[in-house]
Write a structure and sequence with these properties.
The chain has helices at residues 2-72, 83-93, 95-122, 141-148, 151-183, 187-198, 209-213, 221-229, 245-255, 260-270, 275-283, 288-299, 301-316, 319-326, 338-348, 352-377. The protein is mainly α.
Length: 382
Amino acid sequence: MEERNDLFENEEVNQDLQQNSIGNEPVNEETEVSDDTQGVNTENQTQNDSEEFVDNDTASSEVSQTEEAPKKKKPIARKDMTWRQWTWHEMKRNKVAYLMIAPFMFVFILFTVFPVVLSLILSFTNFNMLELNWDIFIGLDNYTRLFFDDDIFLLACKNTLVFAMITGPVSYILSFLVAWFINELPPRIRAIITLIFYAPSISGSVYLIWATLFSDDAYGWVNGVLLDLGLIDSAILWFHDENYAMTLCIVVALWMSLGTAFLSFIAGLQTINKSLFEAAAVDGIKNRWQELWYITLPMMKPQLMFGAVMAITGSFGFGGVVTALCGFPSVNYSCHTIMHCLEDYGSQRWEVGYASAIAFVLFLIMIGANMLVNKMLSKVGQ
């Protein structure tokens, strides 16, 4: 019995020891966890320290870059560039376009800009094609001679201005009104009427038909009809009478005036969007004249400007037709124009310096007329 009691006591002691060992195990795990968390915290701290060090480095590098930026900054906006920088920038950006227009610009400079500059230079000389003289610079003597000593040139200026002030605006308005009328016709009829009006300007020397109609003898058509009707007693020298010559030349110029500008007006009228007229009717446009002023003319400004340039050029350069009808020079210089003066001194007397002065004066007159017309067209539709 005693042995059994000893066994029971030993078993109880073993159970107590096992329970104590089991109770102490969680304490050891907690200590291990705490040790692990301390290691993780130290690692996080070292990472944070390294990140702060990197942030400090990047911040310092950004500060250094911002400090160096103004030194390396290049102009990128128009306001930050000079005129030369902006021009060079645009030329490099559009170099293909400049390459494409280079042939035209070469021909334009060679045959337009260069002759104008050369004419201006020669106008200050007494250069003569028939004489070789190196002492040719005379300053403003050619211009002094033009405006104070040459009565024929002053008469030519008066005739040119009268001719241009009548034929230029009248032919311009007539071309537009005829184009406006033709645009309202059906397409087939429009083509036929356009050919009828445009034919005189493309028929070469068709103006000579007027020389036949107004021939100086009794066999001329107009003289023959007037003699048969008893309205005159003798033939009238139409183109060789200073009372009729200028008037007839103006009529011939107007008859031939429906040319390229006339076609450009027709093209401009056909490109106007028809919905604009419907919108204008809703906004209060009541008649065709209001449509013309507020819609048609503003939409045709490019064609109007082109027609104005062509009208001015034609009115100031009509000397060839006058020479064919009235001769050179005309009777008592009644139809003498600046073009005739230029032809006289440039092609017959070979006084190139004096002819260059005449040409430059005509050039300035045409430039002034173009500027005036451009200013007037800018007010269309206002």
